[in-house]
From TrEMBL:
Taxonomic superkingdom: Bacteria
UniProt entry tagged with the keyword Lyase: yes
GO function terms (MF aspect): lyase activity
UniProt similarity note: Belongs to the DapA family.
UniProt keyword annotations, A-Z: Lyase
Gene3D superfamilies, alphabetized: Aldolase class I (3.20.20.70)
InterPro entries xrefs: Aldolase_TIM (IPR013785), DapA-like (IPR002220)
Organism: Rhizobium aquaticum
Keyword Lyase attached: yes
Name under which the protein is recorded: Dihydrodipicolinate synthase/N-acetylneuraminate lyase
Length: 305
């Protein structure tokens, strides 16, 4: 990338048809809708993209389709996480060859009981860096069960050439972000948070320069980051307070299903199908979600109508 990435980098959902096949046209519409929401970049194949229910062939298809369809309008970040180092290396090389601007990866894990020692984690990231020339974002999330202490993250930022962005979404993320920024200094190019921006104000206070949310309503969350970084703290707080009921409902009640349901309601995609063993939302949860989204007049609710 030619510039430092800040702002909002939402995760694109993977749309499926009602019978569970990858919806290629729906994926293109998702990407267009996200760009129309004013996003600063798009992340694909992440956990909120249901990456764990996709085959290798589907991942390759979606990577190629997404990078080609976005066509440079915004940077595309491709998630490449896998336990096997040789697989993440190949995924990284493939993403870069297609024109991806960045890759994101979690530390290697296979359930909470199978996590390499710190040296193995370090070597995992270094192998990817040695194979590509685009930035790497480290995703630090409880789902992996892998401990990534601040001193280890700083060591990787200083010693591994392409490690420069960090998505911190662990408990007490703000404290970890602040410690990471203080210890890493200029090597911490992009400190971001996640979790649908549920802790965004605290994380911005700690020095985060952006957020990686879902794709449900980034046009409402992006101004929080913009206003905060411009010193308009009252405006940032007021907008976050407006968004928080929907952010909280998504984060605590809906998970990855929320963006797909809102996009289906707004005609962006035809189905909000999630692959088994995931289950659809209850009607109760769905109706509250749509009510809160209508209150905020989110773009995805009307984009395809």
């Amino acid at each position: 990338m030619k510039h430092v990435l800040t702002g909002i980098l939402p995760v694109a959902p993977t749309p499926f048809t009602a019978d569970g096949r990858v919806d290629e046209d729906g994926m293109r519409r998702v990407l267009d809708c996200m760009i129309d929401q004013g996003v600063d970049a798009i992340c694909i194949l992440a956990n909120y993209s249901e990456q764990f229910v996709l085959s290798d062939e589907e991942r390759a298809l979606l990577t190629k389709l997404s990078v080609e369809h976005v066509a440079g309008r915004v940077p595309v970040i491709v998630t490449i996480s896998h336990f096997a180092t040789h697989i993440v290396v190949e995924r990284a090389k493939y993403a870069q060859s297609l024109g991806a601007s960045m890759v994101m990866m979690m530390p290697p894990y296979h359930g909470v009981g199978l996590v390499p020692a710190p040296l193995g984690i370090y070597e995992h990231f270094k192998a990817v860096s040695d194979a590509i020339s685009i930035p790497i974002m480290i995703q630090d999330a409880p789902i992996s069960g892998a401990s990534l202490p601040v001193d280890m993250l700083v060591k990787m930022a200083k010693e591994i050439e392409n490690v420069s962005y960090f998505k911190i979404e662990v408990p007490f993320a703000a404290d970890k972000l602040a410690a990471l920024i203080e210890a890493g200094g200029p090597e911490i190019v992009g400190p971001f948070d996640g979790e649908e921006a549920v802790t965004l104000l605290a994380d911005l206070d700690a020095g985060a320069t952006g957020t990686m949310t879902s794709a449900m309503f980034p046009e409402k969350i992006r101004p929080i980051v913009i206003d905060y970084r411009a010193g308009r703290l009252d405006a940032a707080l007021a907008q976050w307070q407006r968004c928080l009921p929907l952010v909280n409902h998504e984060n605590r009640q809906c998970g990855l299903r929320a963006a797909k349901t809102v996009m289906m309601e707004g005609g962006v995609i035809k189905s909000d199908y999630v692959r088994h063993p995931l289950k659809p939302m209850t009607d109760r949860t769905k109706q509250r979600l749509l009510s809160l989204a209508r209150d905020l007049d989110v773009l995805a609710l009307k984009w395809g109508k």
